[in-house]
Amino acid sequence: MKKAIIALALLASAGIHAQEYYMPGEGEGIVYFLPKTQIAVDIIATRVDYTPGEFSLYANRYLRINNVSTEPKTHWEIKNILIRTVGTPDSTKAYIMKLKDKSLASNIELTNEGIVKAINTTSTYADPQPDYKLEKPKKHENARKYMTEDILMAGSTAKMAELTAREIYNIRDSKNMILRGQAENMPKDGASLKLIISQLDKQEQALTQSFTGTTDKTDKVFTFLFTPENNLKDKIVARFSERIGVLTAENLAGEPIYVSVNNTSSLPVAEETDNKKKKSDGVIYNIPGKAQVNVSYKGKTACESEVPATQFGYTEILVNGLFDKKVNTRVIFNPTTGNIVKIDKD
């Protein structure tokens, strides 16, 4: 135990960084961790902001559009919930790789957190990172840019609204005349027709929004981590409020979002094999098991997935004979699960 503590101190003082090799001095050993699985629940929530238009009070009178609010409003919606795994150093799986004269296993690549990544090579492996297509507010056209001089010079807001509504109807009539081929100056070709209609659509939308207002949507990702346990049932991982958004599990202002976990692996129990492996001489690595994860909200399943879980697996060993001077063995590990991704030798 004292040797392990000394080796850990040596590791910390050596300043290990990702994609760098640690070459210990004579008589030292290399300390490395295997990862344990944490599950990340990514909640993609959308903030919806409504801004009333300049003439929202007259939307029904001049455009016959009902239920237009004259007050700004904001609410939240859950767009999606996704599950992924994250590897963190397992303090119960810290090992010392003792150096021997005939061993080539001293070229070990570790992550910033000390998790083993590769031996005798540089790892290029990386778990796919989530690339969520997040929605952002779109730029709105300034309605006043399309208002005529008569509209802008009107003496009251009510008069401006009336003249703006007339301009909207005129634009609609112009589009109909062009589409029917009845306009005095018809476009000469299809490309010109498409361009003119597009410009008229833009003007109509901008002027109409001066009555109906605009709605902007902004997506945001909220991530919550937890450690999976067998037969975990209805653990509150987060909460959600349409008024406030995504909240922590402790904030009672929102409805709970539950997570449940079941061990679906048929692998041996980890505790029964780890003790044997720790006594063996070689490089220890993980054989992860599987976990069925279910996320539910308001009584309905929001997300369900089977993911690798080191807690439900066991460890194996690469014997030192693979790393003597006669055999140049190269190994790449998955730093999230600790299993072997690739192994080859000369």
Report helical residue fraction. Answer: 10-25%
Strand order of the largest sheet: 7-6-8-9-10
Report mean pLDDT, rounded to a whole number. 85
- Major sheet: 5 strands, antiparallel
| Class by alpha and beta content | alpha+beta
Report the radius of gyration as a whole number of Å: 32 Å
* Total number of helices: 6
One letter per element, helices H and strands E, the order comes to HEHEEEHHHEEEEHEEEE
Describe, in plain words, how this protein is organized in 3D.
This protein is α+β, with helices and mostly antiparallel strands and 346 residues long. Helix content is 23%, strand content 40%. The chain has 6 helices and 12 strands. It has helices at residues 2-14, 59-63, 149-152, 157-179, 190-212, 270-279, and strands at residues 29-51, 73-98, 108-110, 116-119, 214-226, 232-241, 245-247, 255-263, 282-297, 300-319, 329-333, 340-345. The strands form 3 sheets. It has a 5-stranded antiparallel sheet, with helices on one face. The chain has a 4-stranded antiparallel sheet with strand order 3-4-11-12, with no helix packed on it. A 3-stranded antiparallel sheet has the order 2-1-5. α4 runs antiparallel to α5. Mean pLDDT is 85; it is low at 1-27 and 270-279.
